[in-house]
Specification:
binds zinc ion; 239 residues; single chain; Purple Acid Phosphatase, chain A, domain 2; 8 helices; 6-stranded mixed β-sheet
Length: 239
């Protein structure tokens, strides 16, 4: 079994389409760590695709915000504006689907999906200290997370935490992993290409990928929708 693991699609249909074309034929099932919507111009198309194609997914903070499950006061003005826009354009069916998305952690076989961190779906795992702190809440050898929009993650050893620095990771049974596939629809690690990963439990590897997509088309749609210009601009730079 090979899993295609996605996170933070954020209503970006062009990025999602490129990821699926790039990964085609190399996976058996698709999992999703949340934030299907928010920021991007195609929330309905992305949610409909996820409803049809993603057997296991969890909610992200933007999914909550766009259906009224989270107070928008915690969002910066740009994120708030996009959440309001998204909530206005979502169809009733898609809104219901997002409202019913389960909260992470969600266990699948010997691994789990979380949006932010294992202890808090809204927490960002950025530093090794944060990863170290999360270690006590990890109840699977591998946790896939999103939220930071930064591809990579952490290896939790008994005597310390290391950043993941290779594209293809041979999995060791003596350590635990916190791994982020990167954001499909709004990367923030200064690489504007869409991120994803493929995980094979039997072959014991995880491989990270980046793929180019039609950024200009997404930018045009963002501007046409009247969403904040910054949301279009940042896609070009991956930050
Ligand atoms: Zn996100």
């Amino acid at each position: 079994m090979r899993y295609l693991i996605l996170s933070d699609i954020h209503g970006n249909l062009e990025a999602l389409t490129s990821v699926l074309a790039d990964a085609k034929g190399r996976y058996d099932s698709i999992l999703n760590c949340g934030d299907l919507v928010g920021y991007g111009p195609d929330p309905n198309a992305v949610v409909e695709w996820c409803r049809a194609n993603t057997p296991v997914l969890i909610r992200g903070n933007h999914d909550k915000a766009c259906v009224g499950l989270q107070d928008l006061e915690w969002f910066n003005p740009v994120a708030r504006k996009s959440a309001v826009w998204t909530s206005e354009v979502l169809t009733e069916q898609n809104r219901e689907f997002l409202r019913d998305l389960p909260k992470g952690p969600r266990a699948v076989d010997d691994f789990q999906l979380v949006h932010g961190s294992p202890q808090d779906e809204d927490e960002y795992l950025v530093s090794r200290e944060e990863a170290q702190n999360a270690a006590q809440f990890v109840d699977r050898a591998i946790s896939f997370f999103g939220h930071t929009h930064v591809q990579g993650g952490f290896i939790l050893h008994r005597n310390g935490v290391r950043y993941v620095t290779t594209q293809r990771l041979a999995l060791d049974r003596d350590v635990a992993y916190l791994l982020n596939p990167g954001s499909v629809g709004q990367p923030r690690d200064e690489d504007p290409r869409a991120g994803y990963l493929i995980y094979s439990p039997e072959e014991r590897f995880v491989e990270f990928f980046r793929v180019e997509y039609d950024v200009m088309r997404t930018q045009q749609k963002i501007l046409q929708a009247g969403l904040p210009e910054l949301l279009a601009y940042r896609l070009q730079f991956g930050k």
